Amino acid sequence: NQKLHKTGDISDYIFENSRLQLASADAALQQARAARDLARKRLDDATLRAPFDGRIAAKQFDLGNTAAPGVPVVTLVDIRRLKVKIGVSEQDVVRLRKNQPASLQIDAYPGHTFQGRISAIAPDADMRTRTFPVEIVLTNPAEYPLRAGMVAKVRVQLSQIKGVPMIPTSSLVQSAQTRVAFVVRNGKAEKRTLKLGPQKGNRIAVLQGLQPGEKVIVLGQDRVSDGSQVKIVQENKLLPQ
Q1: CATH classification for the domain delimited by 83-155, as one of 3.40.50.300, 2.40.30.170, 3.30.1330.200, 3.60.15.10
Q2: Which band of pLDDT confidence, cut at 50, 70 and 90, is reported for residue 168?
């Protein structure tokens, strides 16, 4: 129409009317595209996508219910790889290492042993149980399928600790939430905060706080304090494990 208008084949009125119709059609096209994009977004917002492959363990909503943003709709579990959580005593946790192998037995499959490995060892104890949380991971075998929530019996071969002193458990004194012992140094009692290891009978390994050869008070330690004058009646040297 622009060429026809320049040559005078159409009037100014027809040309202007055609231009307005084109602008109106272009605006309608843009509006239709915006409506399409909005519809796509609403459809995408209404579609739930799982962050991983798994199975639905529980549904929090039924068909037709209204769900608010941020509220869980389903509980999804991935049971291809399972995690077993156990609590380990302070004497044994020092003998565990990450990636250390572990064997597990499940009551549902008597006689079969599952193999896993230690994936995490907590640096702090659970104050409720006084044990250290340890996690073990294993692959869920197709021939012996496991389910989340099953109870396992776990066996781990503890690493050996050598070259540390062993003291009688009776020489330990409870102080607040720590275990301490008293050594004799220059004729005086000196309190030591201990980090303990595994126990053998009535003797326990000391990982930190004592050195081989130091003199530990094993009788009357509950009646002395840090700096008290002491007299050695009988002496036995600390020997390493």
Answers
A1: 2.40.30.170
A2: confident
